[in-house]
Design goal:
175 residues, four-stranded parallel sheet, alpha/beta
Length: 175
């Protein structure tokens, strides 16, 4: 603060910097240069999960539509409840985060089925962001969905850092 009690424009500078970083890191800007072409004679199957996956799906869909490849893409993205965005081709499913819900199982099962449906000329594009380990819940054999939910709640209550939660989750997931 300055002597007159103002912040000397710091708030405005920080706001400008934040907006510039947000624009630069947005999937609509940073994802398209990295998207592969549609394979010759094949298709692109888009799957993904996470809090940012819907924005990535919108960017991927727009990229392939602009390239005239809208008839070559399909897919399903799972994102956190309230984070869905409108798409025309790629389906968006909202699921539980940080505690998985029934849609977390549905999304994981459908993503696995879509990936398994890929033929030799197809490409599976997997878009992942933070939250994917909760949003896709595919418990390993011998672990019930209820047990996985209860464990997630216990880890959250204990204050376990996300790195430790992810370590446990990866051993309990088919994905």
């Amino acid at each position: 603060m300055t002597k007159d009690g103002s912040n000397g424009g710091v708030r405005e500078i920080l706001s400008t910097l934040y907006e510039a970083a947000h624009r630069t890191a947005h999937p609509s800007v940073c994802l398209p240069p990295h998207l592969p072409p549609v394979p010759e004679g094949g298709r692109i199957i888009v799957i993904g999960a996470g809090k940012g996956s819907a924005a990535m799906a919108v960017a991927a869909e727009a990229h392939y539509i602009a390239a005239g490849q809208d008839n070559k893409i399909s897919g399903l993205i799972s994102t956190r409840h309230g984070f869905g965005l409108p798409t025309g081709i790629i389906k968006i499913l909202e699921a539980g985060h940080p505690v998985p819900d029934a849609n977390s199982i549905v999304g994981a099962e459908r993503a696995i089925a879509l990936a398994k449906s890929a033929g030799p000329n197809d490409l599976v594009l997997c878009l992942l962001s933070g939250g994917a380990s909760a949003i896709w819940a595919a418990p390993v054999p011998g672990v019930s969905f209820g047990a996985k939910q209860a464990l997630t709640k216990q880890l959250l209550k204990s204050g376990a850092p996300i790195s430790e939660m992810n370590c446990v989750r990866k051993h309990l997931s088919e994905i």
